[in-house]
Amino acid sequence: MKIDNYIKNNKDHFLKDLFKFLKIKSISAQSEFKKEIRNAALFLKQEFKSIGMDKVEILSTKKHPIVYAEKIISKKLPTILVYGHYDVQPPEPLNLWFKPPFEPYIKNNKIYARGAADDKGQVFMHIKAIETLIKTNNIKFNVKFIIEGEEEMGSDSLSNFLSKKNNLKLLNADVVLVSDTEMISLKNPSIPISLRGIAAMDIEIIGPNRDLHSGVYGGAVANPIEILCKMFSSLKDENNHIKIPHFYDDVIILKDKEKDNIKKIPFNIVNYKKEIEVKELYGEKGYNTIERTGIRPSIEINGIWGGYTEKEGFKTVLPTKAFGKLSLRLVANQNAKKIAEDCKKYLLNIAPKSVDVKIKIHDGISNGMLIDTNSKAFVAAQKAIQKVFKKEPILTRGGGSIPILSKFQEKFKIPIVMLGFGLPSDNIHSPNENFGIDNFFIGLNTIIEFYKNFSNSN
Amino acid sequence: MKIDNYIKNNKDHFLKDLFKFLKIKSISAQSEFKKEIRNAALFLKQEFKSIGMDKVEILSTKKHPIVYAEKIISKKLPTILVYGHYDVQPPEPLNLWFKPPFEPYIKNNKIYARGAADDKGQVFMHIKAIETLIKTNNIKFNVKFIIEGEEEMGSDSLSNFLSKKNNLKLLNADVVLVSDTEMISLKNPSIPISLRGIAAMDIEIIGPNRDLHSGVYGGAVANPIEILCKMFSSLKDENNHIKIPHFYDDVIILKDKEKDNIKKIPFNIVNYKKEIEVKELYGEKGYNTIERTGIRPSIEINGIWGGYTEKEGFKTVLPTKAFGKLSLRLVANQNAKKIAEDCKKYLLNIAPKSVDVKIKIHDGISNGMLIDTNSKAFVAAQKAIQKVFKKEPILTRGGGSIPILSKFQEKFKIPIVMLGFGLPSDNIHSPNENFGIDNFFIGLNTIIEFYKNFSNSN
Q1: For the domain B3-195+368-457, what is the CATH code?
Q2: How far does Cα A240 stand from its chain's mean position?
């Protein structure tokens, strides 16, 4: 049977299977859903078996299981490793969902459910692409799947898994293919060529042993909130350049061609401001919005609290403590671990001796990622998009982070391709998450094209 | 009967009556105690009648009643107005009290109960002093009492009361006497000659319409917490001088004699630091701790919050809003209202257009107070202390505020004397509030001396 026909004939069955997957409440961060997480892994095992994968395993971890599946056609053929995750974000707040998050339904040609786009729907495109190729006798490469259950909570178990040599051998491949990102739109297909890394820390300022009366002590004792504000204000200068010494030392200066690529990314400042309802944008001088989030590192204060924090009334305390949380988004070639330490040192230097300061750098630091756009794998992806969308993909720069991908890059030294088919309107991590049915099938076709291009080019 | 004998013979009855007063849960800030507040006012009414006051009235207000009592001996004699309050601070946290807060008991010669020192015990010294003078036929002056039930929540009703001409006529007197403060110790008797004023405000920084993903938007959109930190950090320079324009213009420069008085205030920096457990003190350059809290204005940030505020974990948001609360403590001659407006303007100027800023100045602004140490009333107080304590009182500078006293000073243009007998160890506003029995009776005697001195000198 021809590939096209198989897909056409099986459209309903593909979606029916996906709906079964979406119904499983595989929320990784909430421990009461442990059984559902297990059910999602079992579902995948069954699915992989039924499409004809040779070896399917549920790998136990300290937390949630990893599902591994492979089909080796010949050792001489190239091997594609597909990464994805079956866990989903908690659906709260539930009252903002039009229908319950784990009762998938279709409206306006979109599938609504938690995980529809992030990442169950996108993982399923791969499964059904491989099913199609197996069932139509068109599979001319080896394929391995590694689908984890902790992506939404930091990928700790998969990180540990990747730190063992034997496991790296098991996953040995020529490319890592990931569908966990989005495109600008179906009219403007795009491929992200970089992601930012991340490091985060908690800051605690410890002042007097109790909340003091601000009349009796005010002016004579260091106020922890004031010190914390001073520390946070010292992070950037008047041009919003970050002041941590050597912070920008390793940031790559873009070549002209890369600058031209950035100019091709469509950006409408009016819509951008309207969508988030701000009057003016704000950021590092000398860079535009795309550059500020795509090629420049940033620091954000994610939380702060201390003293009297009720909206109503007031209490004239000089508080005993203040707390803050900040995260850095780092670009490729910056050493996230070193910069986190530099940031900590810098903040500690600002605080006077009158307070104690505790800074805890969180685990789960990851470096920024840059994709090699000259690799055979990347060219295969570009061609696949060109073929299916009839349009050259725009090369985008992601501001967010997928920490496990940096780990893959560091461990495997093989190309990574992010071939995602979500859209900015998919509401991932938010109520009413959705994934277009067109996106699913266009994605499936593009993936098949990629497999074809990649195995032919190797 | 002689005064001394009357006090000696009635010691038990004085304390018994005080215990009845202390048992009443007159917590003004918590509405479920409304009835107890009323009971405290009724108790005072009964008490004033029984000691022989001529006119006793419970004056209704929008909130809690004011108790008024007077004894006019002769229009030719000087009139003393005694101010105090019968309401108390909420006793929470209850688990830190050794015994329930409204079941007074004596231990180590101290009375333990909420309100023992602040201010029921001190109001009661006056009542029993007047009782003593009436019962022994020694009252040679007119006396008026105005005892409110809202001091711990801002004295709104009494403020309104004082804004009416008729009421000012009713309260017409030659001195306002207040026992609602503390002394350094019984060995170092002291009188406060100034209090700081207060102004407080809420600040709200409004950024994007929702918490944004710090990866997708980080670096390109103003972070409300960052802006708030910048505003708060801009309040003081590197020497901790306040940077609001014209802030210090009206601060009085001390004369040499006043500086000498400040040097007499005992201060042990080691104990001070130990008591609040800080390594170093911190404040305006060029001033010591006594000066920083006594003669210099200050600004404290009383609270801050925004973004993700759980101690555990992290959430990489660029938050939609941030909130802060600050209060200013102002010294005599500074115009609190003007300075609050200046502060607001200054903060608004710092914020970029990328955020909206709302600043709400709280009601209950009050100016700082300075006592005229040359007045007959003040001299009478000094002499009374000299007589009873056999020691000249040290003139202290209070860092806190009693806003209603500034109102009295502004409305009446008569001397105010703060003759308080609490101690720093009384735990006012805290669990296990207490008031020494010695303090009560030494206070009672000093008050009688003051009455005598003041009526003789007028």
Answers
A1: 3.40.630.10
A2: 26
Could you give the C-alpha distances from B96 to B275, B418, B427, B429, in angstroms and in order?
19, 31, 12, 13
Note whether A304 contacts B304, CB cutoff 8 Å: yes
Alpha helix positions (H), A23-115: 34-51
Q: How many other CB atoms are found less than 10 A from the CB of residue B430? A: 14
- Inter-CA distances, A64 with A40, A120, A133, B217, Å: 10, 16, 30, 31
Closest CB to A352 among B208, B280, B354: B280
Query: Which residues of chain A have a CB within 8 Å of the CB of B322?
Result: 304
Q: Which residues of B touch A401 (CB under 8 A)?
A: 215
Residue B222's pLDDT is 98
% of chain B surpassing 70 pLDDT: 100
**pLDDT number for residue A273:** 97
CA separation for the pair B360, B302 (Å, rounded): 15
Instruction: Give the pLDDT of residue A337.
Output: 96
Mutate to test the interface with B, among A201, A314, A429 (most CBs of B within 10 A): A314
> Which tokens hold the place of A193?
């060529």
d(CA A222, nearest CA chain B) in Å: 5
**Burial of residue B8, with CB atoms counted within 10 A of its CB: 0-12 exposed, 13-18 middle, 19 or more buried:** exposed
Distance from the Cα of B89 to chain A's closest Cα (Å) equals: 13
Domain spans of chain B, in order of start: 3-195+368-457, 197-251+297-361
Per-residue pLDDT for B211 more than 80?
yes
pLDDT at A93 (0 to 100): 85
Pick the residue of A184, A201, A225 with the most B CBs within 10 A to test the interface with B by mutation: A225
What residues of A are in contact with residue B228 (Cβ under 8 Å)? 229, 304
Q: Do B215 and A399 count as a contact with CB atoms less than 8 A apart?
A: yes
A167-186 pLDDT per residue, tens: 999 999 999 999 999 999 99
For B377-403, what is the mean pLDDT?
96
The pLDDT score that the predictor gives to residue B351 is 95
Comparing alpha-carbon positions, the chain B residue that sits nearest to A400 is B215
Q: How far is B343 from chain A (nearest CA, A)?
A: 16
Probe site for chain B from A276, A279, A406, A426 (most B CB atoms < 10 A): A276
Instruction: Provide the pLDDT for residue B314.
Output: 81
Nearest residue of A to residue B29 by CA position? A313
For the entire predicted model, the pTM comes to: 0.91
Q: Is the pLDDT of residue B458 over 80?
A: no
How far apart (Å, rounded) are the C-alpha atoms in residues B423 and B436?
A: 8
Q: For chains A and B, what is the number of CB pairs under 8 angstroms? A: 277
Looking at residue B12, its amino acid is D
What is the pLDDT, as a whole number, of residue B239? Answer: 98
Alpha-carbon span A114 to A88, nearest angstrom: 7
A111 is written with which tokens?
């599938």
Phi, psi values for residue A72, rounded to 5°: -105, 115
Amino acid at A442: I
Question: Which residue in B281, B314, B400 is closest to A216 by CB distance?
Answer: B400
Distance CA B28, CA B149 (A): 7
Distance CA A316, CA A215 (A): 8
| Bridge partner residues of A303 (DSSP) | A325, B307
CB atoms within 10 A of CB A237: 11
- pLDDT of res. B447: 98
- Is the domain covering A197-251+297-361 a CATH 3.30.70.360 domain? yes
The pLDDT value recorded for residue B282 is 97
**pLDDT band at B455, cuts 50/70/90?**
very high
Give, for B449, the enclosing helix (H) or strand (E): helix B437-457
Which residues of chain A, if any, have pLDDT below 50?
Answer: none
Split at pLDDT 50, 70, 90, the class of B228 is very high
